[in-house]
């Protein structure tokens, strides 16, 4: 079975086409700058060449038409006919409390995703546009929604509730939902496969570190707590997001600077994080280079970044009554050996014997980075959200 996976952003569409008989990726790429000048489709051809096609791409439907056209084109195609695509899996960011698993898309599912637009105003509308485009272009093909929030629906109320008037939770659904769920689920399962362990017996702390970052406590294969909240703003210090912040700081800034709610939201979402601290960049590579050259604010940002992650690891180990596996994933988690070393420093009290030499010897590979006799296993597992979406799509379409 061939399954197309779509990840629609506000102005982009990432795609991968899987042959699920072998889970091989036979086509992948990205459409960028949808609705903007200079829009393009960039993809890898079957021969391995990187190809970039520019054109007018005014909306997601047009972008998906471009993708389908490339998949079957004589010059760059990897399939002979669109009839070979038997199902489509969509990354859906927010499913609220309605979905604790992936689901085959029908009118009721679309309506529920629409109801969650207020909770994910940048992502859910894009997902809906992708779904509607596929309904128009390939109406006979079944579609599946895979929610970032679904994995975290196993959290108990003590983890997901906020200490605000309960009526506001009931009225607006204001609670911790968490994100990166597909990634956390994948790396936890994959880590146990690599180690030959039964996930139902393991206490796992998964650190998804990239432009957005979150840490999740996974006990027996289920999410029991996670650092992101109602929105992806809470928790870790990120590229441009402030993460955990005293609400009094925000109201103080709004009062002193006389800025609106919209401006305040932009401040903590787009101009804070390591970018805000350093004034240099939101890219950890740039900040590490600046720190190496003696930039004190860059050094401060790195210390803050590592320290916040370390605090969450300690908190989640306490919440679960221990930890067996600590996983690093995401762009920074997979490639940032300095970040991993900074986070794992002084975690010996948990039973972690970190292998500094192994940690600095690779990039973006599945590797154990603790010593063989370490009571806690630390490891790097590159994430593969698209494969997880394809697997869930195959599981659900096969059930119908």
UniProtKB/TrEMBL annotation:
Predominant place of localization: cytoplasm
PROSITE patterns the record matches: ACETATE_KINASE_1 (PS01075), ACETATE_KINASE_2 (PS01076)
N-terminal signal peptide: none
Pfam family, one: Acetate_kinase
Residues annotated to bind ATP: 14, 208-212, 283-285, 331-335
One GO cellular component, as annotated: cytoplasm
Cofactor mode of binding and number, as noted: Mg(2+). Can also accept Mn(2+).
GO biological process, one term: acetate metabolic process
Keywords: ATP-binding, Cytoplasm, Kinase, Magnesium, Metal-binding, Nucleotide-binding, Transferase
Known pathway: Metabolic intermediate biosynthesis; acetyl-CoA biosynthesis; acetyl-CoA from acetate: step 1/2
Superkingdom as given in the UniProt entry: Bacteria
Catalytic activity, as annotated: acetate + ATP = acetyl phosphate + ADP
Cofactor section: Mg(2+); Mn(2+)
Residues that coordinate or bind Mg(2+): 7, 385
Cellular localisation: Cytoplasm
Record: residues binding substrate: 91
Molecular-function GO terms, alphabetical: acetate kinase activity; ATP binding; magnesium ion binding
Family per record: Belongs to the acetokinase family.
HAMAP family associated with the record: Acetate_kinase
Subunit structure: Homodimer.
NCBIfam families (UniProt xref): ackA
Protein role: Catalyzes the formation of acetyl phosphate from acetate and ATP. Can also catalyze the reverse reaction.
Protein name listed in UniProt: Acetate kinase
Species of the source: Fulvitalea axinellae
């Amino acid at each position: 079975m061939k399954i197309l996976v779509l990840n629609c952003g506000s102005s982009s569409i990432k795609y991968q086409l899987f042959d699920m008989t072998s889970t091989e990726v036979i086509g992948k790429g990205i459409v960028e700058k949808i609705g903007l000048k200079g829009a393009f489709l960039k993809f890898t051809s079957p021969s391995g060449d990187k190809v970039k096609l520019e054109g007018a791409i005014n909306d997601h439907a047009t972008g998906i038409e471009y993708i389908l056209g490339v998949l079957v084109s004589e010059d760059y195609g990897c399939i002979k006919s669109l009839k070979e695509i038997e199902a489509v899996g969509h990354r859906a960011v927010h499913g609220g409390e309605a979905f604790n698993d992936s689901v085959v898309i029908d009118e009721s599912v679309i309506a529920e995703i629409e109801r969650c637009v207020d909770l994910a105003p940048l992502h859910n509308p894009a997902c809906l546009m992708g779904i509607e485009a596929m309904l128009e272009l390939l109406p006979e093909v079944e579609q599946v929604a895979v929610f970032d929030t679904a994995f975290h629906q196993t959290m108990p109320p003590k983890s997901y509730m906020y200490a605000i008037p309960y009526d506001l939770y009931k009225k607006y659904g204001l609670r911790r939902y968490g994100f990166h769920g597909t990634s956390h689920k994948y790396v936890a399962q994959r880590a146990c496969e690599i180690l030959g362990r039964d996930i139902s017996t393991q206490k796992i702390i998964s650190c998804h570190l990239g432009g957005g970052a979150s840490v999740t406590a996974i006990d027996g294969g289920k999410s029991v707590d996670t650092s992101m909240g109602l929105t992806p703003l809470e928790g870790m210090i990120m590229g441009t997001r402030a993460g955990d912040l005293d609400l009094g700081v925000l109201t103080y800034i709004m009062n002193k600077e006389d800025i609106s709610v919209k401006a305040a939201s932009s401040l903590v979402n787009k101009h804070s994080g390591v970018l805000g601290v350093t004034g240099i960049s939101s890219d950890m590579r740039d900040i590490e280079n600046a720190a190496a050259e003696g930039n004190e604010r860059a050094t401060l940002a790195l210390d803050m970044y590592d320290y916040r992650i370390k605090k969450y690891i300690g908190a989640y180990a306490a919440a679960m009554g221990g930890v067996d596996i600590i996983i690093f994933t995401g762009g920074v988690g997979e490639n940032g050996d300095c970040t991993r070393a900074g986070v794992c420093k002084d975690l010996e009290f948990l039973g972690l014997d970190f292998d500094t030499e192994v940690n600095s010897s690779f990039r973006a590979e599945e590797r154990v980075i603790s010593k063989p006799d370490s009571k806690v296993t630390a490891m790097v597992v590159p994430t593969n959200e698209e494969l997880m979406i394809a697997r869930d799509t195959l599981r659900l379409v096969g059930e119908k």
